[in-house]
Write a structure and sequence with these properties.
With about 180 residues, the chain is mostly beta strands. It has strands at about 5-10, 20, 25-35, 40-45, 60-65, 70-80, 85-90, 100-110, 115-125, 130-135, 140-145, 155-160, 160-165. Strand 11 and strand 12 (about 155-160) form a beta hairpin. It is globular and about 50 Å long.
């Protein structure tokens, strides 16, 4: 059990809430809680540390549920295989409802929780992004986002700030890599 109300996981069927480093030593996961269970936290558990409880997992990133700030968008939170970053799709919800949301793929330091990089940023009236896979250091990602016709999801490779659609890839985050 985790302290307080909430749960470990996410809003199914969206996303994969658990992610391992390549050496199997660290597990990143989502914890939901806060008022109305709408605040997302990303925690990292060192499985080689003493104890056997999720309570010892370190809090790395918190996404408060309020307008005008960066928020997590209900998808995957992946730790890079080398364990240095947490990668996820984020949304900045505007303070004014008449303005579009701003979407981005954001990388956070797995040690400090601070933003390391934010790329593939664009304004979108509807839709969502998701990170499906990350290369060893997070420099290459497979993502879905709504850049298709009429906001339809497209799956592609994101590297160096450049998105390349994958031909014939399913337009969904409900796939395994």
């Amino acid at each position: 059990m985790l302290p307080g109300s909430g749960w470990a996981g996410n809003f199914k069927p969206f996303g994969q809430p658990f992610s391992w480093t390549a050496d199997g030593r660290k597990l990143a996961f989502q914890q939901w809680g806060g008022r109305f269970n709408t605040t997302a936290h990303v925690r990292v558990l060192d499985t080689t540390a003493p104890g056997n409880s999720l309570l010892s997992a370190e809090l790395v990133v918190t996404f408060p549920a309020r307008t005008g700030v960066m928020s997590f968008n209900l998808g995957n939170t992946l730790v890079t295989p080398d364990g240095t970053k947490i990668v996820t799709a984020t949304t900045i919800y505007p303070r004014q409802l008449s303005r579009p949301e701003r979407l981005a793929i954001t990388e956070f330091s797995a040690r400090t929780g601070k933003v390391v990089a934010s790329e593939d940023r664009f304004e979108m009236p509807t839709g969502r992004q998701d990170v499906l896979w990350t290369g060893p250091s997070g420099s290459t990602l497979i993502v879905t986002d709504p850049r298709g016709k009429q906001g339809a999801s497209v799956t592609g490779v994101l590297t160096g700030g450049r998105f390349t659609p994958l031909p014939k890839a399913p337009p969904t985050s409900q796939i395994a890599w």
